[in-house]
């Protein structure tokens, strides 16, 4: 498994603090690039005023730094592409329905 694949898998453990669904399955991770211990991650949010932005970034950074090949995590917030419900993965939709949230 490549380092980038492991990073994607690791991020499935990071949940949105408002909805217990991973940031990957919510479609918040736009891109990950890895080079020589440095992760460059592009992240979006469901809304510009998301009150959990700092928490999510801290959780992502903490989880990725727990990986053996990661020394630094650089997070860039991007708004293009704009997040829409279409970015929610199917596995998250099922969990959201269980929680009574329309997905």
Automatic annotation (TrEMBL):
The lineage of its organism: Bacteria, Bacillati, Actinomycetota, Thermoleophilia, Solirubrobacterales. InterPro entries: Fe-S_Maturation_MIP18, FSCA_dom_sf, MIP18-like. It holds the Pfam family FeS_assembly_P. It comes from the Bacteria. This is Metal-sulfur cluster biosynthetic enzyme. Residues 5-74 form the MIP18 family-like domain.
